[in-house]
Amino acid sequence: MRYMGLLEQYKQYLPIQENTPMITLHEGNTPLIRAEKISDMLDMDVYFKYEGLNPTGSFKDRGMVMAVAKAMEEGSRTIMCASTGNTSAAAAAYAARGGLNCIVIIPNNNIALGKLAQAIIYGAKVIAIEGNFDRALEIVREITAKHPITLVNSVNPFRIEGQKTAAFEVCDQLGKAPDYLAIPVGNAGNITAYWKGFKEYHASGKTDSLPRMIGFEAEGAMAIVKGEPILNPETVATAIRIGNPASWKGAVQAADESGGQINYVTDEEILDAYRLMAGKEGVFAEPASAASLAGLIKLHKQGGFKGGETAVCVLTGNGLKDPNNAIQSVKAEPLVVEDTEAAVMNAIEKLGGT
Ligand code: F0G
Question: What atom in ligand 1 is closest to the CA of residue 153?
Fold first, then answer.
């Protein structure tokens, strides 16, 4: 049967009524890819839930399709969000699709170029503030409380509803719930959503067990790990450069109830995992996404697994969002040579041969 999009696919689990517009860009239905070499390396069964293949290149499309459909149902004309980039791309795309206005507030100079390009080409009004994501979210909350504008950050509960469908897909694709779900944590909406999804699927008899939720913040932005907001969060993974996660409680609850944990990874660990996924498995995800694999590797090094467990790493965004980071992180530019066979062969030798 032809896939008709997330709202149609999971309508029985979603707040969909007769008058909810069933908009779609065919979000969701993303592949679960077995990480062959990394599974061998860790003596586990490791999979990537590759959310970078959503229509705007990140998991945000799952929540945004639901939030925008509900905004339209309620007669809203304008949506607004703060974003480290991906939420703004998704909001802008679904606003275009649904015929709504879209305003996005981003931290100046701290979003990946691809994400900025998306928000602009989809026609959003893009405003960059001289402050970070946390400040942008405060401002958006203030403005949307006073004006008839729908807030579409993940504090909007419809976002969480849409995003929980990724947990359903993981269970359907594996034929069971995984033992571990490794996930990057920024504003903490996604870990909250996955946990809700796993619990609902389990309650409806679709799975026999629940995964342990292991969430990873970036070291320079590890508010939950530290137990206090970080005033000036810093990390190479700009998508999760967040110092005061809005769904803090949801993340802690997911970790506690599931017997998992919220931990952190360094930028170096993130970039190592980022190169490993691309170079050894052929999967290019953005740096924030690599926090999930980096975290799994970190816990493995600490002796956290007995071996043979099934672990799913959520790869939240596409690597193409942030090409500059990829080029910088391998410190390699293409060799420029003369247009002769000899010069090209010479260059191949220089690069290590055939
Ligand atoms: N990975 C990517 C690629 C993200 O863009 C985000 C969040 C996360 C992980 C963390 O998810 O916030 O639900 O814990 N990006 C938001 C944005 C903040 O504005 O695009 P979270």
Answer: 19
